[in-house]
Specification:
The protein has six helices and no strands. The protein is mostly helical and about 160 residues long. The protein has one domain (about 5-160): dinb family like domain (Four Helix Bundle (Hemerythrin (Met), subunit A)).
Length: about 160
């Protein structure tokens, strides 16, 4: 196993641990008032974080499949993340429903990424379309996915502690 294969395995394990940690933390909140708290004055509440996670992993799964199939990945909406979260109305939606929605998207994304051959450097360095920055590879996406989940796990903890 190459060093990069080990790194990819570590990223996949980090994604799985982040998923389990977010699921555990959110599902064990026993004070309903926490779900009304925000990450700062204009920040997101937990429902918005979970809705965003679901949207992101849904996009990442579609993007990864498209890159593997050699077709253009799906285009982004052109709107900011905050606009998409607000427009979706996640703030008013049930956090447990959004948690389940995210898990239903996250698991297949995780499984798809884990199914790819870890030593196929050409596959992992395959870029997306120019609108995605051109050089944004599957390897980059894997690293970003693990970091993205960890970043929002931290955000959820900040919301709970505030």
């Amino acid at each position: 196993m190459s060093q990069l294969s080990r790194y990819r395995n570590w990223q996949l394990m980090a994604m799985e641990k982040n998923m389990l940690n977010i699921e555990h933390i959110v599902s064990t909140i026993d004070d309903p008032a926490i779900f009304d708290k925000r990450d700062g004055g204009d920040g997101w509440n937990i429902s918005e974080v979970l809705g965003h996670l679901g949207d992101t992993d849904s996009y990442f799964l579609a993007r990864a499949r498209a890159v593997i199939e050699g077709v253009d990945p799906p285009a982004g909406s052109g709107r900011s993340v905050d606009e998409r979260v607000k427009d979706a109305g996640y703030a008013e939606q049930d956090a447990m429903d959004l948690l389940q929605r995210w898990l239903k998207v996250k698991a297949p994304y995780q499984e798809f990424m884990a199914s790819l051959p870890k030593d196929d450097a050409e596959l992992w360095e395959r870029p997306g379309r120019p609108a995605d920055g051109g050089g944004f590879t599957l390897n980059d996406q894997l690293v970003l996915s693990a970091y993205h989940d960890l970043d929002h796990l931290h955000q959820i903890i900040k919301i709970i502690k505030s």
